[in-house]
Design a protein that fits this description.
Largest sheet: 7 strands, mixed
Bound molecules: zinc ion
Number of helices: 5
Oligomer: single chain
CATH architecture of the largest domain: Alpha-Beta Complex
Radius of gyration: 24 Å
Order of helices and strands: HEEEEHEEEHEEEEEEHEEEH
Structural class: alpha+beta
Distance between the termini: 70 Å
CATH superfamily of the largest domain: Nucleoside Triphosphate Pyrophosphohydrolase
Number of domains: 3
Length: 313
């Protein structure tokens, strides 16, 4: 029998095998877990394609706080009702994407007279470890979209009110065509290890007794590795080597992505930049000060140091 060929010129059997191989590869990619990545796939979107899922997650914010449902035994849940269902006045709503099979939406409320029964407004940070980690990350995504939308109401070039684009997460000026995308400020954060000790420092804003790894924003024109080297040099006057990427973490307070590195000490003695930090030192595993919360990539970098040193001893 004559074998039909598809448009790509590949016979159907081979095409099927290739498709299966693609699916297999994608599944392998999906099952590999990275730090701070979602465990369930999320597909960002601008509007639901086709049917809306029967369940929904609504990330509803008012004055920087998120509206959550309080279930039995004081369990906290992300809201499954729309502001319309709850009779709440909105300034802005937008589709966020599909999490697994559940559609997600973001909304910002206008002033509301009263909180609906069995609901509360909570600070986002306070929900870490209280709601599922994936939903915490999606709430972080949602609040960044609200910030961007609120702070880009007018064109930065000609001051005309901006209009949402339907095709992408962007706002466009109807007068001069300037397009604004959500703002993201990359920052590098790094562990620096000198034999069996790690460099930790504290900023005046930290809780009493807490020390963390150094971090700073990336400057225009700089590679991430250059930013790592510069930050350590500027803040403690120490030179470093062996700069290695470790992991990244979206940080929605207010709109960063933290890019984490490890590095080793190469020379110099600590001399702190007093404008940025108030103390810094080298700490062994046995004499660590109070550390940043588990929510943070700083904690992961320090934990990696502890694990490596514990293995050696
Ligand atoms: Zn304009």
């Amino acid at each position: 029998m004559f074998m039909q060929h598809d448009h790509s010129g590949i016979c159907p059997a081979l095409s099927t095998i290739r498709k299966q191989a693609d699916i297999f590869r994608q599944e392998q990619i999906m099952t590999k877990q990275y730090h701070f990545s979602l465990k369930t796939p999320f597909r960002p979107g601008n509007h639901p394609d086709g049917s809306i899922s029967s369940a929904a997650f609504w990330f509803i914010f008012s004055k920087e706080k998120i509206l959550v449902q309080i279930a039995e035994e004081d369990k906290v849940r992300v809201c499954s009702f729309s502001p319309e269902d709850l009779g709440l006045p909105v300034i802005f709503t937008r589709y966020l994407g599909r999490y697994g099979v559940i559609d997600c939406f973001v909304a910002e409320l206008d002033d509301i007279p009263a909180v609906p029964p069995a609901m509360q407004f909570r600070g986002l940070r306070s929900l870490f470890g209280v709601i599922d980690d994936d939903l915490f990350s999606l709430a972080g995504r949602a609040i960044q979209i609200i910030h961007w939308h609120r702070e880009h109401r007018f064109c930065g070039k000609c001051a005309t009110p901006m209009i949402d684009r339907r095709s992408e997460l962007a706002r466009k000026c109807p007068n001069c065509d300037f397009i604004s995308y959500p703002r993201l400020s990359p920052a590098v954060i790094m562990s620096v290890v000198r034999e069996d000790r790690i460099l930790l420092a504290r900023a005046p804003r930290f809780p009493a007794g807490m020390y963390s790894t150094l971090a700073g924003f990336v400057e225009p024109g700089e590679t991430l590795e250059e930013a790592v080297r510069r930050e350590v040099s500027e803040e403690v006057a120490v030179s470093i080597d062996n700069i290695q990427y470790v992991a990244s973490q979206p940080w929605p307070f207010p709109h960063s992505i933290m890019i984490g590195f490890s590095a080793t000490y190469a020379g110099g003695e600590i001399r702190i930049d007093e404008k940025e930090i108030e103390d810094a030192g080298w700490f062994s595993v046995d004499e660590l000060p109070q550390l940043p919360a588990k929510i943070s990539i700083a904690h992961l970098l320090i934990e990696n140091f502890i694990k490596k040193k514990s293995k050696k001893s």
